Amino acid sequence: MTIETVALDDQNSQLVLIDQTQLPGRVEILRLSTQEEICEAIYLLKVRGAPAIGVAAAFGVYLGAKAIDTEDYATFCRLFDEKRAYLESARPTAVNLAWALGRMQQVVLDHSDLSVAEIKALLLKECNAIKAEDIEMCRHIGEHGLSVLKDGDGILTHCNAGQLATSKYGTALAPIHLGRERGMHFRVYTDETRPLLQGARLSAFELMADGVDTTVICDNMASQVMKNGWINAVFVGCDRVAANGDVCNKIGTSGVAILAKHYGIPFYVLGPTSTIDLATPTGDDIPIEQRPAEEVTDMWYEKPVAPQGVKVYNPAFDVTEHDLITGIITEHGIARPPYTESLRVLFEKKEDTTR
Ligand code: MRU
C-alpha cells in the first residue's frame, strides 16, 4: 500500500486522509481544512485506529492553531485549548487521541516566552514528530512481534490494527508486513469484525495489497478455525491498556481471547507505549464508546436487517482481562504477566531511552 493513511499538506493548510469508510470499493482521498470536518472524520471513522486518530488530531489541532489570528499569548492559549478539547471529544476510548493532543498542548504551555508565530512553528515540528515516531514505533513493534512467530504461521486478527490504523506498518499487522519485506509467509485469518467490518474491509484490503495469504472469516467462525489447528497465534491491537494489563480493543476481542485460552493458542496484544495508560488502574475504568444503532441494523446492507425500532446495544470496544493475555508487545519490548510489574519496567526502559 503506497497511499499514506494520514498526511499534512501544510502549504494548503489541509489534513489529507484516505477515507476508510469507502474502502475497499473506492480509494478516495479527503482534504480537510476546518476543525468541524476533522472532528467529524474522526467520529465517522474516515480515519480510525488508535495511533492514526492521534496523528490526525495532532495535525488537526496544528491547523486550528495556525488559523488563530492573535499575537497575544493568553488569547492564543485559550483558543488553542478550545480546539484541543473539541477534537478530543470526537472519540473517548483510544487514549492516543488525548495523548497526542496533550503533547501538542504541552508545546504551547512550555513556551510562554516565545511569540505566537514561533509557537506555531514548534507545533508544526511536534505534529510531524508524532507521525515520524509512530512509524518508528510500529517498526519496532513489528520486530518484537516477529520474534514470537515462525515462517508459515497462521495468525488470527480482529478489527484492523494495520497500516490503515497507524502511519505505517500498523501494530498487530506490523510483524506480518515486516515479515513480507523479508520474504516470510504467513497465513492471516481476519475476523470480519461486526458491525463496521474493519477486518473484512480494511485488514483484508491492506494484507492483500501486500501479497499476504489472507482469509476473511465471520466473527462466529473463530472457534472453528482454531479447532481446525490453523491458528498459531492471535495478534490484536489496542485502544487503551490499563496499568494492570487489562486491554480495551474493538468489540469482540475479549471473546477471541477466551477462545484462544480454550484452545491453548497464545494471545498477543500489540501497541505503542502511547496506548498504555498507567493512570487508568483497570479495564473497568476505561470509558467505552457507544455508537449509533444504525451501524448494527442498517449500515452495509441494502435493506435494514433488523425490525425498525428494535433496541440495539452497540459498544465499540470491550475489555480483555489481563489473565487472558500472553504478552503485550510494544516498541520497547514484550511485557509479560504480571503486568503491573512488567508495564512499569517497560516505562522505566522508555524513559531511559528517551533521556
Ligand atoms: O473503532 P476503530 O476502528 O477505531 O477501532 C480500532 C481498533 O480497535 C484497533 O484495534 C485499535 O485502535 C488499534 S489500531 C493500531
What report would you give on this structure?
The protein is α/β, with parallel strands linked by helices. Helices cover 41% and strands 15% of the residues. It has 11 helices and 14 strands. It has a 7-stranded mixed beta sheet. A hairpin with a 2-residue loop joins strand 13 and strand 14. The two termini are 34 Å apart. 46% of the residues are buried. The model has no long low-confidence stretch (mean pLDDT 97).
Q: Which key terms come to mind for this protein?
A:
355 residues, 41% helix, four-stranded mixed β-sheet, alpha/beta, 15% strand, binds 5-S-methyl-1-O-phosphono-5-thio-D-ribulose, single chain, seven-stranded mixed β-sheet
Q: What's the layout of helices and strands?
A:
Blueprint: E1 6-9, E2 14-18, E3 29-32, H1 35-43, H2 50-66, H3 73-88, H4 95-110, H5 116-146, E4 154-157, H6 174-181, E5 187-191, H7 198-209, E6 213-217, H8 222-227, E7 233-236, E8 240-242, E9 247-250, H9 253-263, E10 267-270, E11 276-277, H10 294-297, E12 317-320, E13 327-330, E14 333-335, H11 339-354
Helix pairs in contact: 1-2, 2-3, 2-4, 2-5, 3-4, 4-5, 5-6
The protein binds 5-S-methyl-1-O-phosphono-5-thio-D-ribulose (MRU).
Bound small molecules, which ones? 5-S-methyl-1-O-phosphono-5-thio-D-ribulose
Order of helical and strand elements:
EEEHHHHHEHEHEHEEEHEEHEEEH
Low-confidence stretches: none
Radius of gyration: 20 Å
Q: Helix share of residues?
A: 40-55%
